Amino acid sequence: MLGDKKILIVEDDATRLHDLVVIIDFLGESPIQTAFSSWQDIAAQAADDEVGMIILGNTHGGETLKQHLEGIKNTYELKPVAVVGEYGDINPEWDPYLRHMAIGTLELPITYNALIDAMHRAQRLNVARDAARGGLASRPTHLFRSLVGTSREEQTVRTMMDQVADTDVTVLIQGESGTGKEVVARNLHYNSPRRDKPFVPVNCGAIPAELLESELFGHEKGAFTGAINARAGRFELAEGGTLFLDEIGDMPLHMQVKILRVLQEKSYERVGGNKSYPTDVRIIAATHRDLDVMIADGSFREDLYYRLNVFPIEMPPLRERAEDIPLLINELVNRLESEHRGSIRFNSAAILSLCRHPWPGNVRELANLVERMAIMQPYGVVGVQDLPAKYRHVELEDDDPLDDLESMPVKTTMVGAGDVTLLPDGGIDLKEYITGLEQSLIQQALDDCGGVVARAADRLTIRRTTLVEKMRKYGLQRS
Description:
By secondary structure, the chain is α/β, with parallel strands linked by helices. It has four domains: 6-137, 3-Layer(aba) Sandwich (Rossmann fold); 152-314, P-loop containing nucleotide triphosphate hydrolases (Rossmann fold, 3-Layer(aba) Sandwich); 322-405, Helicase, Ruva Protein, domain 3; 413-479, Homeodomain-like (Arc Repressor Mutant, subunit A), CATH 1.10.10. It is built from 18 helices and 14 strands. Helix 13 packs across helix 15 (362-376). It is globular and about 85 Å long. The chain starts with 5 loop residues before the first strand and ends in a 5-residue tail after the last helix. Mean pLDDT is 81; it is low at 135-145 and 397-421.
């Protein structure tokens, strides 16, 4: 979420510092932890360009919140600060610079949702700061805010977008319905040199075949019955910008030939006319179909495929990046709140249940569910029992979002329940024996799951955060 920036945690309480580091590690962010001495000393440990957010916790020096904010202001540039502890409220009469730095208060015990909200606000402040000083020109990968997630799959998509956004290369986005193909296309446009020109989407599957040519290229007056006036097409409307051909796999063969010609010759003719119009548009195409199969059965032109597939981007289905679901839920809730369409929260058991759902409708299905829950449980907290039946994959309810970072198994599983372990005649060091057994089982789970921590945690029926802690404790590595 914060890209290559890190979260600076200033906290004198060792236990609270440890808990914060565990949560931030789980969210995929990089923490810098330190006790407080002075902001000048801290700046020597964490450079300005390294820090994306500061969490200000308990300090033993007796400084007030205003003094801390002034110290940060004098040491760093404008940095978002989330406050933990009993510092009191932000005074509206303070310097506006200080008020903008303090993005909110994290109540104890710190909840997952509260920390995510603070990170989103920090990101927005950083983006606004970069825009004010012209920093958007460099457009780091993490600015693709609509593509929420820390999974490897989603990070790969954002990296590929970052590589191709500044070019005029034709992009083909493939993926299941609801994975966010149009979101990618819009991000590519708005982060390209063409951002000040139009972005024009066309759903090739939603327009009747006999009207598609007129929609794309326009028509002259009298070209066909009902054409009482000349009309510009989508290519003309998108001049200088980006034309997004959604569901290109549904385009009829005769139109595929015409699109291929436009791509080759950079010009087109209106229906019923003979004048050639030059075109300067960037083409981004998308489809949920398997174009290789369509080429094999003759329903998609191979030459057009190679023209479109200059830079392919594959969108992963939501079921393959379940670890992104909590972040996506938070982003969707933030959008509801910003649009004044209500609010909702999900407890940890509900989120765990949603992470186990196959999501055939992908992110679109998740967005619909969040909006439905906001209508049914306005400003409430959704538990497993509140979810529609098909989304209930957890039997045990848990009302604590973090559960003190301890393991809360969803079901009880006995390893080797039919076996009897014999106590040696000379006795046994039970703690050492159990520790060794635990290490062995964790390593087996990691090996069986190819090093995927989330899946290993599921096999062990413990939380991912708990497994990460135990791996760190025992020095275990992914296979």
